[in-house]
Amino acid sequence: MKKIVKVITKNESKEWIRCNGCKKLLYYEELIENKKVCPYCGYHFRLTAKERIEYLLDNGSFKELFRNIKSDDPLNFVDKEPYRAKIDEIEKNGGYSSSIITGEGTINGINVALGVLAFEYIGGSLGAAMGEKLTHLVYYAIENNLPLIVVSASGGARMQEGIISLMQMAKLSAAINDYKKNGKLYISILTNPTYGGTTASFAMLGDIIIAESKAMIGFAGPRVIEQTTKKKLKEDFQTAEFLLSHGFVDMVVERQNLKQEITKLLEFLP
């Protein structure tokens, strides 16, 4: 996945951005107004967790929950730099306490419990703090009789926390099972990218699974699969549309229509 690259043209004083899909130059402010979707080819630029909350929920309705649960360094892990230093820097600069934001808000007036993974926090990776916050959110939704919505954007489990990160898959799956026993509606939204342990646990357990258009979704990435199988994959392999045609997701929705479609589901499947 290429990063957003902002460019300034020689003859213009305004800020422009080149689309990663069709390569056309787009006026950045207009792109923001279009919810970061290219008006020419429909390419969905990646959103931050905070942008996602802004686009999904009614203005001013979000109340963050469980912010006091923060990432830790149980293994004293060091690679290129100490893991502790990395998470401290991210939390200081980005204002995040972990790789997920959890809370309560309204979507067109309907109360929901919402969790949004932050890809900008170590690739939205599943660690102990995310697992704990999302588990708290699930039981909060049970206690308050709320539908649960989780928006995934993740590279998978976090290697810096080893087996502790993998344990979150089982914990979250068990929590969501308790949630479903109480007759609640769980909507899972898959965005680009959703991979690894996230896909192998809570992301694919939704009563309704929605994917954003062209989102890449899977367990292992296409490059790893090709190297393992020694076979060339189809060009659209692991895209949201490919998964829809093979029955792995229920809906593929353009970002501009996402809030409207979720509202319909919440009204029809209470």
Characterization of the model:
The protein has 270 residues and is an alpha/beta fold. The protein folds into 2 domains: 1-45, no CATH class; 46-268, 2-enoyl-CoA Hydratase, Chain A, domain 1 (Alpha-Beta Complex). 35% of the residues lie in helices and 19% in strands. It has helices at residues 28-33, 49-56, 83-94, 128-143, 162-181, 196-199, 222-229, 240-245, 255-268, and strands spanning 6-7, 16-18, 25-27, 63-64, 100-107, 110-117, 148-154, 186-194, 208-212, 251-253. The protein has a 7-stranded mixed sheet with strand order 4-5-6-7-8-9-10, with helices on both faces. Helix 4 links the parallel strand 6 and strand 7. The two termini are 37 Å apart. Residues 1-13 have low confidence and may be disordered.
At CATH level 3, the topology of the largest domain is 2-enoyl-CoA Hydratase, Chain A, domain 1
Mean pLDDT: 91
Distance between the termini: 37 Å
For the largest beta-sheet, the strand count, sense and barrel status come to: 7 strands, mixed
Task: Please outline what is shown here.
The protein is of the alpha/beta class and 270 residues long.
Keywords:
single chain, 270 residues, alpha/beta, 2-enoyl-CoA Hydratase, Chain A, domain 1, 2 domains, 19% strand
